[in-house]
Amino acid sequence: MSKITTELLLERAVPRSTRLRKIETLNLSKLQLKTGDLDPRLFSRLRHLQKLDLSDNLLDKFPNSLTLPDLRVLNCNNNKLEDVTALKQFPLLEELTYENNVYLTLNDDYKVMFLLQNLRLLNGKDITKLANHVRRVNSRKLTSKVTAHWEKFFRDQLPEKCTAEQVKSIKKKFLKSVQTNVVYGPSSLSEFTRWRVKMIAEEFLAYSLGLELNADPEPEEKMDEDEEESTESPREAAEDVSQVTVTPSKRKRNNSKPGSGNKRSKSQANTEEEAEDVSAEPLHFLQCHSKGNSREDFKTQLWSCVFEPLLDCGARKDPIVSSSRTVATCGGESVCLIDCETGTVLKKYKVATEEFFSVAWTTLTMVISDSRKKSHNILAAAGRRGIVKLIHVAADFCYGEIKAHKKPIATVCFSPTRETHLFTASYDKRIALWDIGIPDCDYNFKASQLLVLEALSIPLRIALVPTCPDQYLLAGCEGGCFAWNIKLDKEQKSRPFEAIFQFPDEDGDMTTSHRVDGLAFLNGDVVVSKSSKPGCIYLWSWSRSFDTKGKGCQRTVSAVILAELEWSTTDLSYLTLSTCPAKDYVFCGDEKGSVWMYNLSNYTTAWSSAKGKRSDKRIPPTQILKWPELRENGEQLTEVLINNVVSDPTFTYLVVLTSVNITAIWKKS
């Protein structure tokens, strides 16, 4: 029988507790505990445990599934530990002591410094600088050596077409050779170096070359849909799409014109004859954000996607189109880079303890090793932990992070005029402006906070005013729509909002109090915002609503409404919208898996007039793309919410993010 019981845990809590879930500090020292005494089922109930003392026991290792998601301080002094790699299950760990464990060496110190990204103190010493060196410089040097070893000795051994046995043989030889021949650092760290080299080599094979590591690789997590009538049997279709199929009878057309399957308003009926069929057809349905790579995961929410900007060198550029076809998506613990045309997941970045909410691109001119300057795309990703990850995509390297907020980050965006300026909007009711700096050839960089914008409620969406992106920022928040002056020549570093906008409520009265969960500019002046009342998306004029010469902060101003878009009557929040300014399009998903598309090119000229009148009737969607019937193990996927819809700048591809861990890619034919 285990020595640890519920009663013992409650008794050894500091202070003593009546509920396991309330325990934050626990002292289990000097109990003669062995590894088998640490029952994962019991420990999983300690959801808020932050400090754990296991010193002076008989532990030789840690179980792999203790599930202590909030653990910050761990004392394992005077045990019999032989391995530390299981400590990676405590990613928030900041202080760790394991002195007087005779089997642990300097190599183990380096392993925990690499595995535990938040670790500050190890055996009472501040290891912040050394840990950063281990995670960044050491990793970069070893990655370079591993890549060079492949290029020199193994690249030519892999034919263009090879059998599974050939691939397996080359992988085995490469892993053995690289661990033997790649040497770096002092001999006292040789065990750590071999451990990291093996890890890097496996990642290199998997991500750079597309060679799976398992002897029996899983099918690609991808769901393709054939546009034509299918003659495949259900079994064949299931195999093609990794157990998710599209009902053949629904494949002919997966779009509809306004009113199809929805109650039509008079305005919708009257303009139906003008509706345009944009002929967007589905290309791919991908399940690439699964937790633990599980094909059974249809719960991970996908939140944000943005297309990669083009570089002069034309990386990943399709010569047929004038914009990149590579999109970054995020949700759950991962960020993915996807080729929209082929449906290939080009790269995948994972942080086991994170839930990513937002991604943004910038292009930095960096100095490379021979002192030449070269432009590189950098991806910023942020989420629940309040940390911004900075990823150099071409190098496949996350080179740094910014601890921007103590609460989750809802959204991020870069300035279009200053490539190092990044805005982060957080649940702490603040929007921060950062200068992320430019990394040198060793990826050293310095980030600094330039500005803090104080909000009255949580900011959900932010948008820089296109005509003056260095002066004004708009934010859609839980409690309304706000504007700030962000000009940096002012001395005030922390600023209140300059204006809050009023919109009509359901009764026709003007109100500032409403959740704005969709916000984007259609052009230099027209703002699109959502959620002031159900079933409505507003288009309004920035220049006619906000007087930039007005004085004083915290003004209340009425939004000058140009038009209303007809949309779903759902009261569900956080189904956000986007725009394609070059094509005058607005996109918004709904609670039934449909995408509402509005072509507003016939209206924008009239709106640009200083005396442009408000459209009397709600503008119906040009087209509604209906969600196809996807099946997993023969069962239909239901209750699909469309969290986000984004097109590339030329509206060639449309990327749809869902609540069921599926990224849908449509193409305008």
From TrEMBL:
Q: Which family does it belong to?
A: Belongs to the LRWD1 family.
Identify the GO cellular component terms for this protein. centrosome; chromosome, telomeric region; kinetochore; nuclear origin of replication recognition complex
Gene behind this protein: Lrwd1
Ranges occupied by WD repeats: 402-436
Claim: Nucleus is one of the keywords in the record: yes
The compartments listed are: Chromosome, Centromere, Kinetochore; Chromosome, Telomere; Cytoplasm, Cytoskeleton, Microtubule organizing center, Centrosome; Nucleus
**SUPFAM superfamilies (UniProt xref):** L domain-like, WD40 repeat-like
- Ranges annotated as biased composition (Acidic residues): 215-231
Q: Among its keywords, does the record have Repeat?
A: yes
Any idea which GO molecular function terms this record carries?
chromatin binding
Q: PROSITE patterns in the record, alphabetically?
A: LRR, WD_REPEATS_1, WD_REPEATS_2, WD_REPEATS_REGION
Give the residue ranges for region: Disordered: 215-280
| Alphabetical list of Pfam families matching this protein | LRR_LRWD1, WD_LRWD1
Principal place of residence: nucleus
Q: Which residues form the Leucine-rich repeat and WD repeat-containing protein 1 WD domain?
A: 279-668
PANTHER family annotated for this entry? Answer: LEUCINE-RICH REPEAT AND WD REPEAT-CONTAINING PROTEIN 1 (PTHR24370:SF10), OPTICIN (PTHR24370)
What taxonomic lineage is listed for the species of origin?
Eukaryota, Metazoa, Chordata, Craniata, Vertebrata
Which key words tag this protein in UniProt? Answer: Centromere, Chromatin regulator, Chromosome, Cytoplasm, Cytoskeleton, DNA replication, Kinetochore, Leucine-rich repeat, Nucleus, Repeat, Telomere, WD repeat
Task: Cite a single GO BP annotation.
Answer: DNA replication
Q: Spell out the protein name for this chain.
A: Leucine-rich repeat and WD repeat-containing protein 1
